[in-house]
Input
Amino acid sequence: MIFSSITFLFYFLPVFLILYFISPFKNTVLLIASLLFYAWGEVGYTLLLLVSIAVNFIFGLLIDRTQNAERRTQKILLVLGIACNLLLLGYFKYFNFLTDNISFLSTEKTVHLPLGISFFTFQAISYLFDVYRKEAKVEKNIFNLALYISMFPQLIAGPIVRFKTVAEQIHNRVSTLDNISKGVRIFIVGLAQKALIANTVAVVADDVFALNEATLTTATAWLGAICYAFQIYFDFAGYSNMAIGLGLVMGFTFPKNFNYPYISQSITEFWRRWHMSLSSWFRDYLYIPLGGNRVSPLRTYINLMLVFLLCGLWHGAAWTFIIWGIYHGLFLIIERLGLSALLKMLPRPIRHAYALFIIIMGWVIFRADNVEHLSYFIQSMFGFGKGETVELVYSSYLSHSLLTTLTIGVVFSMPVFVLLKARLKSKLMENNKAQAIESYIMPVFFEVFYVSIFLLSLLNVASGSYNPFIYFRF
Output
């Protein structure tokens, strides 16, 4: 069950919200709803989720109870707890990859990847780290820990919420009208990003990446790559916004996950704006413990490469994800070696073009089915493929609907409305009209906007149009 589905929007969510707000036992309602939500998609692996919760609950208590013992004892317990989580993740996520690539492990057995295992495993690890570092109190009620790990808004695809961020809110939170209103608006924006933009460009992206070597032309390859860049951004950012909005409605504050990543002027900046809950998780729980940039330059570069190699593996068990991680790691190192200083000397449009080119090429690596697919797709992008050099791309793929969606995608991938609102307010301040605009006209405009895109999104969902979700693979 995904957020942009008829089942969730018209049945699950309304029933849940009614029960949640009329019940005095809100955590109980939320926990039951979260387990039902997970069981809807992975009934066979609900027990696995519960086992993960129980194991981390026990290790959290053990780490807390040995705080007065030698630090070494605590560290051993932390390592064992992390190892249990990683073994669980490793078996389900990488078993098939290892048996396919290591001859003596070859087997006909295949292991199904449980939904959201990458996300709830990282949240569990952050819980153990936060207790170990005394940044959060140990949770002595297993049902509260179960709520943290299994909370349905961010269970399947994040954002990755750290225990110390929501620990107090699990015990005490208030759903104010202001937060409910804000949460609903954020949810609507996320739903529109997913249903109106991501789903539209996904059709072309999937069609183009499914073309064989003989029919893939240069123009078509670039169109597919650009469509996929928009698809993965609005798909994932949309889902994150829906999760953040639902959290606010219930009184939780989840971390922002995207900050207009396609306006970046370097790959370093891109990773400060893209999937921020993941990049900050790797920074705080892996990069800094390895020494970060406090060590020698060579060691810093090794740390960076290791982090992004693991980031690639976190996204999926395939050589293309490993290549994608190494690719981004290399550009981060190259920028540290001096490219960043050179970029600062160049005009902003050139810096922006550089970043977008590297990002789009990275998404081609990310999207490719395998190394062979990646090879011929990139060759086609640069005119070395086997497809015809001229093709009626406009009639085949560039429909009016796609062109409109791509235009809207460009606009909404930039902080256009934020800048326009600030500039309008600045201009009106000169004429003493800002207060009236801010108090009356702007709210009406935005309410009409939110209602309109919500109705359009519902129509899109109800029509049964193409509705995949990329991060269900991870």
